[in-house]
Amino acid sequence: MVRSLWSAATGMNAQQANVDTIANNLANVNSVGYKAQVAQFKSLLYQNLQTVTTTANGDPKPTSSQVGLGVRTSSINSIFSQGSLLDSQSDTAFAIEGEGFFALRGEDGNTYYTRNGDFTWAIGTNGGMTLTNADGLPVLDSNGRAIALNRTYIASKLSISESGEICYPDDLNNPVSIGITIGTYQFSNPGGLNRVGDTLFAVTDASGRAINEDTNADVDKSRIVQGYLEGSNVQVANEMVNLIVAQRAYEMNSKAITTSDSMMETANNLKR
Fold this sequence. Notes:
With about 270 residues, the chain is an alpha+beta fold. About 20% of the residues lie in helices and about 35% in strands. The chain is elongated and about 100 Å long.
């Protein structure tokens, strides 16, 4: 009976982590570029009550008796499916169709990756412009350098091609590439990326190094769509169903603890 108390307690802890994950998904349903997460579970060690043996008559017992010791959260995986494209009035709103990520230079000097293409042109002290995200982190080009333009360019006239090239109109008002391409990067295992908040991801050994789409011909190129943002891939209906299931599982584990407590109380009262 004590074993049942601990098993049910591990179930409640696991379902609490599940509810936390679902709640975070629902809270970010309107976060641009957010990727949903799902909790995965695994059973704990099993205790042998009876091993495979023979009876007193020598007859074999082909099965053993094992009791599980509960459950724990094994991992919380990210789902990198494509989110829906949301129309935006901003000229610096970019959505990615494909497997790519934008690259940003963090305040610590490290490179981070995101699907959130809600960028803006920041004006520097010299009058030039730098493409940044909402927090002021510079966006990197296909060469890993911050995208910076001199003061001769007018932000409202800049456009982006599907391949990420920054274009500016010539004398005939035809867009012409200025030789800078917004960098897009892929990963062999995007599920191994480490979340650092603000829809940013950091490279880990599990994700593998970043693959530059501009210099690697072995990957399918992503398409950049100007004037759109990629919404989160959270499916509210599915998350609500998962939330109900998690709540019911939590209640059942709580009921198991109550039942075990009642059984122990009955056993203690036998002496009376």
